[in-house]
Amino acid sequence: MLALDPNRVILSAKQKALRINLNQDLYGTFAEIGAGQEVVRHFFRAGGASGTIAKAISAYDRDFSDAIYGTEENGRYVCENRVKKILEHEYQLIEDRLDRKDHPTKHFFAFGNTVATINYHKTVQGHGWFGLKFQTAADQEPNEVILHARLHESDALLQHQTVGTLGVNLIYGCMFFHKRPKELLLSLYDNLERELVEIDMIQMNGPDFEEVDNRLLSLQLVKNGMTDAVIFSPDGKNLQAADILYKKNILAIRGSFRPVTKVSIDMIAQGLKEFKKEANVAEKDIQVLFEITLNNLSAEGDIDEQDFLDRADVLCSIGQTVLISNYQKYYKLVEFFSRHTKKRMAVIMGASTLAQVFDEKYYRDLNGGILEAFGILFSRDLKIYLYPWYMADTKVLWNSESTPIPPRLKPLYDYLTFNKRIIDIQYDPDVLGIFSKEALELIKSGDPGWEAMVPDFVDRIIKDKCLFGFCGVPNKETSPSTEDAAAAAARAISQQS
Q: What is the distance, to the nearest Å, from the Cα of residue 140 to the centroid of all Cα atoms in its chain?
């Protein structure tokens, strides 16, 4: 559910376009590829466009498009790189062709999109990249906002209309809400429904967004129901799922990572070691993901953005790619992966989590119950790598043979283990008794006992950046750079795998 401000007046696309047209300081270019020229159409029809539109172009033909913006090495033209080339080229033309002496107060902008709408047979879903490069002052360097949207209407003409409204919302939001990035984000859905369009990636850069952490924007996309999953890279850059998961062998681990402990590193290292052995897995195609669910982030009530950033800082500092999702159930996560790859995938989970996966109460919302969920899970080329769970009170180790499974589901479980869809992975017995929750409590209380529960490089990152409520004095002499920490993490995982 989008958390729209009930006090904010929502203008129509025509009203937004007219307000921009009537602002004598805004002047720029529209370049649209695919789905018609639906965005600039609103500005032409609103009136007063001659003072706003420097040029409108639609380079539909690929040869013409290549001649203007260059070729795409991967052959994909509806991509982030394409819209960036459009923005760079068109904005530079404005600066080259307009003398600042004649236009001392103009705020230049360049809007671009590259869109593919649903095909005739409705086998390819519509999607597109949208971007705006713009000034908020005549003497200022430009900002750049880029987003990716998935179009869910089943009719191409309806998708055209959505493209037009979304483009106007983006331009208007950048012009009038750039000082309030969260409001800018929410305004993208003005006069649009979440069911019709999904925004699954956005990136804001430039002088007006210096204080914006794009990882928080990713979180806001999921939190506000704009999408169900987002990904960001170790350098904090928001990524589009198709770009990073396309035809990849995906290895995912879900957890709170609050903080990353020696168990987390052992799980991913042992899982990666096993994954590399798979006949259908090419090491160069492996994409490792650390997943944090929205449910996990809000386990203690409202989402604490600083707590989220603390987790993200550690994972990014050790060179990991992070997935934030609203997929509480694993079959939804695997369904998401399957949009982008048909190659072998694996999920690392603890035995206690596996016991929950086999609990039928989690699937009461499905007509087919647990069998429907498992049909989605294991009709894909998926394996579950099982990490043991040690019950300290009973001294029992849960693994594939001892994890308690309801009797009526035991035949299904036996079938999956017999066919090696669920397999045990190796583990370090010295770290089984470590739990993130206990480490977090020790960090907050100032008890140094937590240091032995996390890898050395994570210990130093937490101290250096004062994460998770750490109040001690960081040792600046031994605190690593981001590159050093990432290298240490990579060595720790590779040595075990």
A: 30
Q: Tens digit of pLDDT for each residue in 68-122? A: 999 998 888 899 999 999 999 999 999 999 999 989 999 999 999 999 999 888 8
End-to-end CA distance of the chain: 42
Could you tell me the residue ranges of all domains in the chain? 13-212, 229-497
Q: Across the chain, how many H-helices and E-strands are there?
A: 18, 16
In CATH, which superfamily holds the domain spanning 229-497? HUPs (3.40.50.620)
59 touches 33 (CB < 8 A): yes
User: What pTM does this model have?
Assistant: 0.91
Q: How many residues does the chain have?
A: 497
Q: What is the pLDDT of residues 471-480, one digit of tens each?
A: 765 554 444 4
DSSP, collapsed to helix, strand or coil, labels residue 476 as: coil
Which helix (DSSP H) or strand (DSSP E) does residue 333 occupy?
Answer: helix 330-338
Cα separation of 132 and 395, whole Å? 60
d(CA 405, CA 412): 10
Contacts of 473 (CB under 8 A, 6+ apart): none
Using CA atoms of 183, 42, 100, 210 in order, give the dihedral in degrees to the nearest 10: 20
pLDDT digits (tens, 9 = 90+) for 183-215: 999 999 999 999 999 999 999 999 999 999 999
